[in-house]
User: What shape does this take?
Amino acid sequence: MSVETSDRPGRIDARPVRHPGRYVAIVVIAVIVAMMVSSVVTNSRWDWSFALQIMKYKPVINGLWRGTIVGTVGAMIIGVVLGIVLAIMRLSDNPVLRGVAAVYVWFFRSIPRLVLLVMFGTGLGYLYPSLSLGVPFAEQLGHFIGLSSDATTVGHINVAHLSNQIIIGILGLGLSEAAYMAEIARAGIQSVDQGQREAAQALGMSSGKSMRRIVLPQAMRVIVPPTGNETLAMVKDTSLLSAIPITAELFFQTEQIGSNTYKIMPAIMAAVLWYLIICSILAVVQSFLERKFGRGIGTQRAEGGLRARMLGLAGGGPR
Assistant: This one.
């Protein structure tokens, strides 16, 4: 009588791998966090009630809206629009356009924003108190033939008057941001397969139309995450507007209150809390945009497949 043997292995008694280092790290982190919380709660010099009161002061609210929010929105509009234009120029077959875009990106990425804002706020007003709009060298030629300067110009800009206005700050931050956005947009455009452009050309689309309808919508998947990071950074960089100087700015106002009341940390924490609120809201918007433009790609598709499999198992399996 033959005995049949089974090739199936016996029951495996698997045990999870122990990680004692993780528990040690958790304990250390918990102790550090408890010490920090204890310091914040027990130290009366934080004066959280006064910090919350500063957050509601009218000059602080005006600085929040006029300096931080308006400055961020205006600078990012300039940076995104000009950055996309520069990215397209960098990818152009025209060597002049490529050279101009490359020099622009090189210059504005090399200059610190604080230095750039000081140049715009102080240097421009010193070099050009007023700018005349007209044909180049027309004023000199007009003097030569006996015409007045008004006859050779179409308008004047009082740079000295605008040098301490929010528009100068927005312009300086926007021009600086455009250099970074140009590289982000260029990376996004290059991430789209060349076959997409060739298919658009085969359908009779022009280069501009294929860029708007085919390339850029697909490139947004790559462009949105770093653009969100740049927006969060811009919210914080608006604190540099005080170098122009612009008084209608969040950090400038809280700093002045701290200097006048000799309560430095409550005033700084009022600005910190506002920055945390704004950046948290923008982070949620960024997450929503990433999910929207990343539908069906990468982790989004994997999560969707896992969710479908889970629902299939819950419903009794696939049919």
Observations:
- Confidence is low (pLDDT under 50) at residues 300-319.
